[in-house]
Amino acid sequence: MRQGSPRPWTxxxxxxxxxxxxxxxxxxxARSGVPSNPPRAHDPVTKFAAAETGxxxxxxxxxDGTTVWVSTQEGLKYNDVAxxxxxxxxxxxxRPVLQKPQLGAPVVARVAxxxxxxxxxxxxxxxxxxxxxxYTIMLLAVDARTHEEVWRTEIPSDAFATGVDLKIAGVDxxxxxxxxxxDMTTVDLTTHRMVWRKPNAPxxxxxGVGTIAVVASxxxxxxxxxxxxxxNGERTWT
Length: 238
Description:
Layout: E1 2-4, H1 10-21, E2 30-31, E3 34-35, E4 61-64, E5 67-71, E6 75-80, E7 86-90, E8 102-103, E9 107-111, E10 114-125, E11 134-143, E12 149-157, E13 165-172, E14 175-180, E15 183-188, E16 193-198, E17 203-208, E18 211-217, E19 223-229, E20 235-237
Parallel strand pairs: 8-13
Antiparallel strand pairs: 1-7, 2-3, 4-5, 5-6, 6-7, 9-10, 10-11, 11-12, 13-14, 14-15, 15-16, 17-18, 18-19, 19-20
């Protein structure tokens, strides 16, 4: 469900865009070689405050053109800093997630001739009667141009824990690699189905060219980098 509403970070996100495209100078006329609007002298910039983006409270973000996308516990927020259009594509409400994972940035990908923004969020459905409470990861795909939901699918999960990373580690072709803590799952972005799941998986370093590069510590606590196949999760190189 798409729900548009003004966002407090619209103005500050617009300021971010101005920093990206550069500032234009004035066009005042000059007389006798003296500019009519002489520039003011400033000390050189030494640092930028993170708060100036206005997005730091919501989490990591992705920038596609002039649109900023942010994954939140409630859904995928967007703000077009050029037009001011903003809103949120909400995930299933379920029960409020008390233990909130640390969400990663959305991922912009090209799937089936369409540019989509992929996001994940935790969903808890309380049990009733003999039915137990279930926990799932909602993978949401939103059209990057229209800001409308394209599809969604669910990934079974264990109970959520505050501070544990939940993110899309990468996309390779039509496959997304989703990680929650030490659990790794791949999803086919054309069928929207889970392909395979690997519990107690090593940390993902990069995803691409049919391979998931991971890093793990051996019994001597030495870090080792090796590859897993995107197709089946099997080890491909060391």
